[in-house]
Amino acid sequence: QLFNAPDINPFSEEEVDVLGEPALLRAVRRLLAHRVRNWQGMRLILEMPADQITPGLEQQTEQALRRYSDAKIEDNHLTIRLSRTRSLIGLGIVTVIAILVIAAAYFLMTNVFPRTSDSVKALIASSISVFVWVSLWGPMEKLLFEWVEPHMENNILRKIPTLDIDIRPKS
Questions:
Q1: What is the Cα–Cα distance from 109 to 86, expressed in whole angstroms?
Q2: Chain segment 63-82, per-residue pLDDT in tens
Q3: β-sheet bridge partners, residue 46
């Protein structure tokens, strides 16, 4: 259950069974939440049934952790790159739409309805300002902040394979 999610079992005493998620994913999430700064002396302790513990299991587990971490880091890099690309495209599209709306409103206010009162013009300008702000918010937020979590996860995934592994019989 280190890499594979068990079936959800709310009757179990094990947290990973109750949540139905892999133990490694749960550990990474806990490390993200606690913002560990000092990794010295940290160990990865795995509890397994005694009959499943075999000679060389620690080395096999270390290699598997390294392969998983490398693959997940690459996947997170792709996620960040894809997110940035999509956000930039969305930001470009929304910017063009905002410019067109502003230009149309300016044209209408100066040529079609030039005698409109200043209060109506201010109301229209305020409405357009809110529309532009709301439209730009989503792509800007994704561009500026969506990369943070995968990046922080990568920092942890780089350190996990370097931890000493201690495999113990489950009591």
A1: 34
A2: 999 999 999 999 999 999 99
A3: 167
Q: What is the pLDDT of residues 109-156, one digit of tens each?
A: 999 888 989 899 899 999 999 999 999 999 999 999 999 999 999 999
Quick one: 157 exposed, middle or buried, by C-beta within 10 A (0-12, 13-18, 19+)? buried
CB-based burial label for 98 (10 Å; 0-12, 13-18, 19+): middle
3 three-class SS: coil
> Tokens 């133990």 — which residue?
23
Q: Which of 156, 93, 103 is nearest to 128 (CA)?
A: 103
Tokens matching residue 7: 């079936």
**7 — phi, psi (to 5°)?**
-65, 145
Reference 139, options 58, 84, 75; nearest CA is 84
How many whole angstroms separate alpha carbon 125 and alpha carbon 118? 10
